[in-house]
Amino acid sequence: MILVTGGTGFLGSTLLQYLIDEGRSVIALKRTSSTIPDPLKSSSLIQWVDADITDYFALEEFVCKAEQVYHCAAKISYQKEDATEVLRTNIEGTKNIVNLCLEHQKRLLHVSSIAALGINKKGLPVTEKDKWEHQPKISKYSLAKYESEMEVWRGIAEGLDAVIVNPSVIMGIGWSEKGSRAIFNLVNKGNKIYPLGSVGIVDVSDVAKIMILLMNSNITGERFILNTENISNQELLTKISVLMDKPAPTIKATPMLLSIAWRAAKLASIFNGKKPAITAESARAANSKLEYDNSKVRERLGYTFKPLDQTLKEVCDAYYV
Questions:
Q1: Does pLDDT of 76 surpass 50?
Q2: Residue 78 pLDDT class (50, 70, 90 cuts)
Q3: pLDDT in tens, 220-252
Q4: What is the pTM for the complete model shown?
Q5: Is residue 104 part of a domain?
Q6: Per-residue confidence (pLDDT) for residue 267, from 0 to 100
Q7: Residue 265: which pLDDT band, with cuts at 50, 70 and 90?
Q8: Which of helix, strand or coil describes residue 60?
Q9: Residue 35 CB: number of other CB atoms within 10 A?
Q10: Residue 157 in domain
Q11: Residues 68-74: what's their mean pLDDT?
């Protein structure tokens, strides 16, 4: 039996599909408010359970039943009002999973993030060895993912059998319209602006496949960056524009322009009651130049990532044609 937290999420639901395709029986945890993807509703191999990962005792009976635990659940938000929940869900939830896996001697695969990685001070792509350092304007999400990963490392020091993955921005075909699909939606609406930064991207299918490979390997006490390609925001948006037959963005979103934009969005939210589409934290992230080295996982597993151009085309063909 396998336990998967965050089963209705973009990554969690993709992982579930691969597991049941292998004939594996799975307990999938979800929030009460989450909707089960239609393709997974009828599977006799999945036992769906409403559970709060911050509730230690609610989790225990399910961890006890599992041989392997995939911890995919996380709260992702750059909204100021969500900061407390982001920290509590990610840190406390991971702490509970780690402690239960330790107590019942279960193997854990923890989904961390590139947000928990450090910065390479020589200007090279970030590797697993680069140490995270606290910055005054660090996002609460980055802090939460770092502290969550530290719980796993603490567990490893205490004897936990665990491996960690740090995916970059996850794209691909799935059942969630949240997250990276927002980038495609912007282009589809005729977006003319591009941030100056760069980003790493990985296909959701690659992340799920590598997670399964690592879980069933003898690798323990290590972390792996999962990243297909590093690309500038301008080039990424241009590639998507070509696939959608839309005009490519031509206006640079300078730091000053983004500063004005997030303040305007915050002001508008006061009147319309909606969360601002852009925040100070997401604006800073958009102009950051981020590059990640995937050589460790390629060499250790002999893995070949799906080309980024193929991922972008598959998403556009599936949802925007």
A1: yes
A2: low
A3: 999 999 999 999 989 999 999 999 999 988 887
A4: 0.90
A5: yes
A6: 44
A7: very low
A8: helix
A9: 11
A10: yes
A11: 93
Sign of CA dihedral 308, 309, 313, 319: positive
Separation between Cα atoms, residue 289 and residue 196, nearest integer Å: 8
Return d(Cα 126, Cα 113) in angstroms, integer.
Answer: 13
Q: Is residue 281 part of a domain?
A: no
- Cβ burial of 124 (10 Å; 0-12, 13-18, 19+) is exposed
CATH of the domain at 59: 3.40.50.720
Which residue in this structure is represented by tokens 């854990």?
A: 108
Burial 176-188 (b: 16+ CB within 10 A, else e): beebbbebbebbb
Confidence class for position 152, pLDDT limits 50, 70, 90: very high
Render 187-217 in DSSP notation, one character per residue: HHTT--EEES-EEEEEEHHHHHHHHHHHHTS
Q: Tell me how far apart the alpha carbons of residues 49 and 77 are, in angstroms, rounded to a whole number.
A: 24
- Return the DSSP state at 311: H
CA atoms lying within 13 Å on the CB side of residue 239 = 15
Taking each helix axis as running N to C, give the angle between helix 204-215 and helix 10-21, from 0 to 180 degrees, rounded to the nearest 10.
60
The CA radius of gyration of the chain, in Å to the nearest whole number, is 19
Distance of alpha carbon 42 from alpha carbon 20, whole angstroms: 12
The domain in which residue 139 lies consists of 2-179+201-228+291-308
Q: How many structural domains is the chain composed of? A: 1
Question: Do residues 167 and 114 lie in contact, with contact meaning Cβ atoms separated by under 8 Å?
Answer: yes
- Number of other residues whose CB lies within 10 A of the CB of residue 28: 29
Q: Decide if 267 is inside a domain.
A: no
Q: What is the pLDDT of residues 160-172, one digit of tens each?
A: 999 999 999 999 9
Q: Which of 17-26, 176-185, 292-301 has the lowest mean pLDDT?
A: 176-185
**For residue 163, what are the β-bridge partners?**
109, 222
